[in-house]
Amino acid sequence: MGRRPARCYRYCKNKPYPKSRYVRGVPDPKIKIFDLGRKKADVDEFPLCVHLISGEREQLSSESLEAARICANKFLVKYAGKDAFHLRMRAHPYHVLRINKMLSCAGADRFQTGMRGAYGKPTGTVARIKIGQVLMSIRAKEQHEKACLDALKRACDKFPGHHRIAVSRKWGFTPYDRAEYEKLRAAGKIVPDGDHVKVVSTHVKLE
C-alpha cells in the first residue's frame, strides 16, 4: 500500500501526538540531517542570514522537509560552493500520523468492520507549523545573497501553502542586529561560540 497523499494530513486538526512509550511502532522520519554546509564556520565569516517563513498554520511531512533540504543544498553547492554557506532546517517532525488501513482485496468485506475500532496505526511523522514560523535558515557571505534567495525559492516549491523569504537584519544566526553586533565586537564584548556568540556581562563581582 503506497503513501497517502499529503493533502490528507495538511491541516493541524487534532492535539499533538508525539512518539512516546505509549505510541510505539512509529516509522523513522525521512529527514535525519538538519545542518548542512560549513556548519563549523566562525560566526564572523557569515554575516548574511536569510529565512524561509511559513504563512500558514499547517503540517509539513518529514518527506517534504527532506525534499526541500536536498533541493536547497544542491542549488547552493552548485552556485555558491560547498563551503560558502550554512543551511539549517528549523522545523522538526515530532507529530505522529495515523492511518486506519482498509483492505481492498476480494472478500475484504468479510474481515473489515468499517468504522468500528477506527483508531489508526502510526504511518509517518509531520512538523506542526505556526503562522510566521521559520522553516529554513541560511547564513552566508554577502556576495551569495542571490544564491541563498534562489535556493529558498526552489525549496519553497516542496511545501504546500503560502510562504515568504526574508533577509534578516541580524548578524548570521545571532540575536543581534548587524550594527549592534559590530559595536559589541569593536568594544571587545563578544566571545565567539560556534555559530552563536556570548556577550561579556558588564556586571562584576563585589569584593
Summarize the structure.
The protein is an alpha+beta fold.
Write structural notes for this entry.
The structure is a single chain. The protein is α+β, with helices and mostly antiparallel strands and 207 residues long. Helix content is 19%, strand content 26%. The chain is built from 3 helices and 10 strands. It has helices at 62-79, 145-156, 178-186; strands at residues 35-37, 48-54, 58-61, 85-89, 95-99, 121-129, 134-140, 163-167, 190-193, 196-199. A 5-stranded antiparallel sheet has the order 1-4-7-2-8, with helices on one face. A 3-stranded antiparallel sheet has the order 3-6-5. Strands 9-10 form a two-stranded antiparallel ribbon. Strand 9 (190-193) and strand 10 form a beta hairpin. It is elongated, with a radius of gyration of 22 Å.
Helices and strands in order:
Blueprint: E1 35-37, E2 48-54, E3 58-61, H1 62-79, E4 85-89, E5 95-99, E6 121-129, E7 134-140, H2 145-156, E8 163-167, H3 178-186, E9 190-193, E10 196-199
Antiparallel strand pairs: 1-4, 2-7, 2-8, 3-6, 4-7, 5-6, 9-10
Helix pairs in contact: 1-2
Offer a few descriptive terms.
5-stranded antiparallel β-sheet, alpha+beta, 3-stranded antiparallel β-sheet, 19% helix, 207 residues
